[in-house]
Amino acid sequence: MTSQTPPITYESGISASERTIQRNRFARTHSRFMYGLCVGFTLLILSILTLVVGYLVSIGWRSVSLDFFTKVPMPYGAQGYPGGMLSGLVGTVVLIAMSSAVGIPIGMLAGIFLADYGANSKLAAPVGFTAS
Questions:
Q1: Greatest CA span in the chain, whole angstroms?
Q2: Averaged over 105-117, what is the pLDDT?
Q3: Contact between 25 and 34 (Cβ < 8 Å)
Q4: Of 50, 90, 116, 132, which one has the fewest beta carbons inside 10 Å?
Q5: Distance (Å, rounded) from C-alpha 97 to C-alpha 89?
Q6: Band of residue 116 on the pLDDT scale cut at 50, 70, 90
Q7: pLDDT of amino acid 9
Q8: Structure confidence by residue, pLDDT tens digits, 33-60
Q9: How confident is the model over 62-96, as pLDDT tens digits?
Q10: Does 112 score more than 90 pLDDT?
């Protein structure tokens, strides 16, 4: 004959399996609530962003033309004021080109080093941390 042990009950008279079900139900409810809260705040932030971008486009669309991208900025009072953004655009392209010329070879060499030679070396952890 086999005897079955009675289920564990707590002071409230709830068995252990019922208590686990209640905890899981609470966890699911809490998770759904937090997910809804995240979605709600995401929508709120996106709507604020849409309003700001819409406002900026509505007040600045008249200024955007081919001259805006092809003329240099002019000082206040000069003929052709305010000019354009050519020097800012060229500076951005130069900055990206210079940083790519330095960063891409270093990144490629570090990746090749880690993959082929130094996966277990003392230098692997700092190089991996720096790359991340």
A1: 106
A2: 85
A3: no
A4: 132
A5: 12
A6: confident
A7: 60
A8: 999 999 999 999 999 999 999 999 999 8
A9: 888 888 888 888 888 888 788 888 999 999 999 99
A10: no
Residues 6+ apart with CB under 8 A from 15: 7, 8, 9
Q: Which two tokens stand for residue 130?
A: 């720096």
Whether residue 82 has a cis bond before it, omega within 30° of 0:
yes
C-alpha span between 126 and 70 (Å, rounded): 44
Tell me how far apart the alpha carbons of residues 36 and 30 are, in angstroms, rounded to a whole number. Answer: 10
Read off the tokens for 32: 């759904």
* Structure tokens belonging to residue 9: 């009950």
Q: Specify the amino acid at residue 96.
A: I
DSSP 69-129: HHS-B--TTSTTTTB-SHHHHHHHHHHHHHHHHHHHHHHHHHHHHHHHT-TTSTTHHHHHH
**Is 127 exposed, middle or buried, given 0-12, 13-18 or 19+ CB atoms closer than 10 A?**
middle
